[in-house]
From TrEMBL:
Name of the molecule in the record: Fucosyltransferase
Membrane topology: Single-pass membrane protein; Single-pass type II membrane protein
Organism: Linnemannia elongata AG-77
Keyword terms of this UniProt record: Glycoprotein, Glycosyltransferase, Golgi apparatus, Membrane, Signal-anchor, Transferase, Transmembrane, Transmembrane helix
Phylogenetic lineage: Eukaryota, Fungi, Fungi incertae sedis, Mucoromycota, Mortierellomycotina
Matching Gene3D superfamilies: Glycosyl transferase family 10, C-terminal domain (3.40.50.11660)
Localization annotation: Endomembrane system; Golgi apparatus, Golgi stack membrane; Membrane
Positions in coiled-coil regions: none
One term of GO molecular function: alpha-(1->3)-fucosyltransferase activity
Entries under Pfam families matching the protein: Glyco_transf_10
Length: 451
């Protein structure tokens, strides 16, 4: 006889004080084909609400925000507001670092990251992988595009309801001060080509469009109206490729990307992407203009969406073998890690670990701790902007200041020259027609130079 959901034993998964994951609270993990379930429990505010000790004791895994683990920047800002570290040291509990975001600077601090035993995020080296991409990306890439190439060309000229034509490139941005300084690269790019910027930052130059009936365009509708899109990540970290690239694949728009050094696993075809850091802003603008003005070359980069034969439906044969091999669906399991992983599978593996520890089938290793993560390239575009925007100006300023200093010194020394000449002439007239030099006795090691 099968066991109903109501009859299954539940194991708590405690989330400690991170309010942005409030949607998880009381959510049941019941899709794992296991004879038990798990339930997410959110403990929001250690300052004002005492923790449910019974639930805490029953939960061997504690999901903790990286922001809380660093006491210097914590929202709670007190060690006593965190789960007791002594329980981790004793092997009774394990902290799980959860999130989709790229590693922050303080994750490179051993004093912070060493508090965690497990990582649940996008990186393939994580204990529990929560990827932005999974096997569904293949269907998304091969799905019919929401707009035609003719529509894109029309929008370039006509634009939205305001009658203002569109730029070749669009960018939707909400993080206005990114970790890598991507906004500085875009600023340089705008010197050579128009970029329509939407979002919440002060440098936006387009208002979010609406349909004639007043409905706002969706992200997908807006992106598919453009021929190019800036899929710039806010951090340059290994494997950190987010929904920005997925959106361009779905929209049938050429993505201009900036993120990890290697996009090989994320490139649908050999020429599907334009990697920004392979070009200077001026070179990138020239490439975009060339593709914008050559319909055949532009369409060649999007054959997975717009095949030459409109009656032919694109297949995985049109995609890069590396891309297909990376994201082709394989068997999923709550017991064994498979690839590509998905969120449900990873959460099922968390549930299984919580069950096994609670029932004494597995023990937590107190020496298992995360190591500092230093795979990100910090402030990538700050350095670029320094060289392009400021370095030559400061160099010119330095040369100017040096020239002024030398000129002032020359003027000051110039006043002394007549005095020196007068003194030399006076000495000459008095019979001293040479300047006394130090003497050196070749038979002695002592000389006036040695003093």
């Amino acid at each position: 006889m099968s066991t109903s959901i109501q009859d299954k034993k539940e194991y708590p998964l405690m989330w400690w004080g991170k309010d942005e994951i409030r949607g998880f609270d009381q959510k049941l993990v019941d899709n794992c084909n296991l004879p038990y379930n798990c339930r997410h429990i959110l403990y929001r505010d250690p300052r004002f609400n005492p923790v449910d000790k019974d639930l805490y004791d029953k939960s061997p895994l504690i999901f903790v925000s990286i922001y809380q683990a660093d006491d210097s920047i914590s929202a709670f800002n007190r060690p006593e507001d965190l789960p007791p570290q002594k329980d981790v040291d004793a092997g009774k509990k394990a902290w799980v670092l959860y999130g989709w975001e790229a590693p922050k600077w303080f994750e490179s601090k051993k004093s912070v990251i060493n508090k965690f035993s497990y990582k649940f995020n996008y990186h393939p080296n994580s204990d529990f992988i929560y990827p932005y991409f999974d096997s569904s990306i293949l269907d998304l890439v091969l799905a019919p595009p929401p707009s035609t190439l003719e529509y894109k060309n029309t929008m370039r000229q006509k634009g939205f309801n305001d009658g203002r034509g569109l730029a070749p490139i669009a960018w939707i941005v909400s993080n206005c001060n990114s970790f890598n300084g991507r906004e500085y690269y875009v600023h340089q790019l705008q010197k050579y080509i128009n970029v329509d910027i939407y979002g919440h930052c002060k440098n936006l130059n387009r208002v979010w469009p609406r349909h004639a009936d007043g409905r706002e365009f969706t992200d997908l509708e807006l992106t598919s109206s453009y021929k190019f899109y800036l899929a710039f990540e806010n951090s340059n970290c290994d494997f950190y490729v987010t929904e920005k690239l997925k959106r361009t694949y779905e929209a049938g728009t050429i993505p201009i990307v900036d993120g990890p050094n290697d996009y090989g696993l994320f490139a649908a075809t050999h020429n599907a992407l334009i990697q920004a850091d392979q070009y200077s802003p001026k070179q990138l603008a020239a490439l975009v203009k060339a593709l914008d003005n050559d319909e055949d070359k532009y369409a060649d980069r999007l054959r997975y969406k717009y095949p030459k034969d409109p009656a032919r439906k694109p297949t995985v044969e049109d995609l890069s073998p590396v891309f297909v091999g990376q994201w082709m669906n394989r068997n999923q399991s709550a017991t064994y890690r498979s690839w590509p992983p998905n969120y449900d599978e990873s959460m099922c593996r968390v549930c299984k670990l919580a069950h096994d520890v609670s029932e004494g089938l597995e023990t937590l290793d107190p020496t298992k701790r995360l190591a500092p993560d230093a795979n990100c390239l910090a402030k990538k575009h700050y350095r670029f902007t320094w060289m392009v925007e400021y370095h030559w100006r400061l160099s010119l300023l330095f040369v100017a200041l040096l020239g002024m200093t030398l000129f002032v010194l020359y003027r000051k020394r110039g006043r002394r020259i007549p005095r020196i000449m007068t003194w030399l002439l006076r000495e000459w007239d008095s019979g001293m027609n040479y300047l006394a030099l130090p003497t050196f006795d070749s038979k002695s090691t002592n000389s006036q130079w040695s003093n």
